[in-house]
Automatic annotation (TrEMBL):
Gene Ontology BP term (one): response to antibiotic
Residues in coiled coil: none
Superkingdom of source: Bacteria
Organism from which the protein derives: Candidatus Gottesmanbacteria bacterium RIFCSPHIGHO2_02_FULL_39_11
Family the entry assigns: Belongs to the bleomycin resistance protein family.
Record flagged with keyword Thylakoid: no
Domain VOC residue range list: 4-134
Protein name (Swiss-Prot/TrEMBL): Bleomycin resistance protein
Keywords: Antibiotic resistance
Amino acid sequence: MGIKPLKPELYVSNYKKSLLFYSEILGFKIEYTRDNPKFAFLSYRGAHLMIQECDPSKEDEYVTGKLEYPFGRGINFQIETNNVQKLNDLLKKNNYPLRMELKDSWYKVKDVLHGSRQILVQDPDGYLLRFSQSIGKKSVT
């Protein structure tokens, strides 16, 4: 598994629904779970993510404000994949609407354009996930 220096933990309103979305539809591996509180440590191609069911009746030092849909406003999690088309097809097959359809984008870094094929999807609580696949590099002329 290997420990990564950044491991986002997302509070979710329905643990079972979120766990099915991440593991069954997107293909995240369940590394381990805990029951109290409901928690899962997930991995996908070297990326790590944690989900935990929130309990709005309890104070939590990690929650900075009221959790209202969509959770995670102002952030998107870019997750590298080697087959964004497959994820696109799985999401559509499971009737998950895409926030952004499959799209190729080019980002300039110094004198090189880096290509990325990507989709955006919101998880059941509204967290924005950007799955990205490299499509090569081009010199800027």
